Amino acid sequence: MTRTLQMLATCALGLATVTPAFAAPSADDDLSSRVVAVSDLNLSSSAGAEVALNRLSAAARAVCDSGASTLDLRAMAFEKNCRRDSLNSAVRQLNAPLVTIAYVNKAGGAAEVRTATR
Q1: Cα separation of 44 and 29, whole Å?
Q2: Contact between 75 and 13 (Cβ < 8 Å)
Q3: What are the two backbone dihedrals, phi and then psi, of residue 28, each rounded to the nearest 5 degrees?
Q4: Which of 17, 38, 112, 113 is a good FRET partner for 93, with 20 to 30 A between their CA atoms?
Q5: What is the pLDDT of residues 45-68, one digit of tens each?
């Protein structure tokens, strides 16, 4: 069974200033996604977990990059929040304990990820 993960992030730049943070995206929102393959990794090893997290981080950057100028502070803040939220969601969906631990460690212990119990 191939294990892949699809990340979704809202990429409509204007959405950041208009929509409250707790609102779900509507059908009209511009959504971008990336499929991240992890089936070739041993997620029960630290090395495999690090590679998975690197792949998820790269996908979050690709999904959330708006191409805005670094002088556009509002766009930069939106991209940063988009990357954080996308990565948090992807790690939660993957539900691999060592990936979650690696993510929390990289976030300096500031990340909150709730995983489903099996």
Answers
A1: 36
A2: yes
A3: -85, -15
A4: 17
A5: 999 999 999 999 999 999 898 887
Q: Which residues pair with 9 in a beta bridge?
A: 32
**DSSP β-bridge partners for residue 6:** 35
pTM over 0.70: no
Q: What is the DSSP string of the chain?
A: ---EEEEEEE--TTHHHHS-TTPPP-TTS-EEEEEEE-TTS-TTSHHHHHHHHHHHHHHHHHHH-----TT-HHHHHHHHHHHHHHHHHHHHHH--HHHHHHHHHHTTT---------
**Nearby residues of 78 by Cβ (< 8 Å), 6 or more positions away:** 13, 16, 66
Q: How many residues belong to the chain?
A: 118
The pLDDT tens digits for 80-116 are 999 999 999 999 999 999 999 999 998 876 555 555 5
